[in-house]
Amino acid sequence: MKRTRIGTEPRREANRLYRWLVAIIAAGCVCTACAQVAEASHPITHLAPIQNPRALHTSHSIVSRRRTMIGTASWYGPGLEGHRTCSGERFHERSLTAASTSLPLGSRVKVTNLDNGRSVRLRVNDCGPFVRGRKIDVSRHAAERLAIRRRGVASVRIQVIYVPRGTHADRPRTTSHRKKHRSRRATSDRASI
Fold first, then answer.
1. Helix (H) or strand (E) holding 142
2. 11-23: per-residue pLDDT in tens?
3. What is the Cα–Cα distance from 80 to 90, expressed in whole angstroms?
4. Do residues 122 and 108 make contact, with C-beta atoms less than 8 angstroms apart?
5. pTM value?
6. Cα 54 to Cα 75: distance, rounded to the nearest angstrom
């Protein structure tokens, strides 16, 4: 017969419950942090329209104006091969992908190296760069195509080509629907008086 000390069983149960509670709280904190990173794609207020704006309509996207920004690009990837990106897909150094904090996931951009004129089209599937002053992180293969792999950073022009439907960046910059609706309601209220 196994001897147990009196009072140890409730203590074990309390310890087990405490560990479960700590694990649930930690998982909640991780999920909250991931959600905040995913929501970190701020409105594109710093993008200016290109001289010749044209609407690009496809079955999946609407871009009211093509937009561009100039900034510093870097590349990333060593040690991340096969890891999950913010979009949920696996990272591959040989793919033409990028990471951005100002563009929504799924966007497509054309990145042009301002030093040598080389350009490449990339798909945004990750969040980053998390270094102040940098606009975009590109994969190793994209860095080779842009000739920035050795230097590590370069000044680039980023042209937004495609933005997924339903994101903040695909809506045209006009008076919001609510404001229009309010003004209609106000005029109808005045007419009824």
1. helix 140-146
2. 778 778 788 777 7
3. 9
4. yes
5. 0.55
6. 30
